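Sample pair:
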Amino acid sequence: MSASRTELARGLFAPLGPSYDRYANLLSFGQDPRWRRFLVSRLPVGPDDTVLDVACGTAAVTLELVRQKGCSVVGVDQSPEMLTEARRRLLLAAETGRVRLVEATAASLPFEDGAFDGLTAAYLLRYLDDVPAGLAELGRVLRPGATAALLDFGVPPRPLPRSAWNLWVDAGLPVLGRVISPGWHDVGRFLGGSIRDFDARWPVPRLLGAFREAGFEDVQARRLSLGGCTVLWGRRA
């Protein structure tokens, strides 16, 4: 039986924790930090609020939430290896007081209904085995009126940027990944097909519709970097 998308993500990224942020920045031509800053900027939260950062990985978005919003954060990830690196980064940043890390899957969050004042998730959507159910689970843990903001890769819609993107993901990513390490080579070979497949199955209009059906309103999307990244956000009804 083939592995689920959740299991695939766990196996693919587990070995990459110590190098993840450095090479994610490099492989995105320096855009990854900019995308994360924009993601966090969508949340209207402050120092008295608690935000859930799902698929927190090495805590890059978690730290951006604390820096930009001053809020408390609960970071959730299914990978103990990623959480180990997240704890190291939080210690270096002296931000352990406002952050709690929890090992759990996005499909079954161990929190009560309406527990959080905001929610972020970076690079989660493509790994949900059931997108509508996953969005509903994210909405479940938000109080009414709270905002969820989600970020993932996209396929540029215009022909010229799309051609450049195709060249990069089909040739550049695998070659550079091989230079870095076997693990990054696997990621480099995997990403292009994964992003194309998700874009074909879940184009932005359909994603926005699923967001609404999951109980969100005022849903919006913004393409960044000519469409190489998409951020979606909306308020829990």
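Residues 103 and 223 are 30 Å apart (CA to CA).
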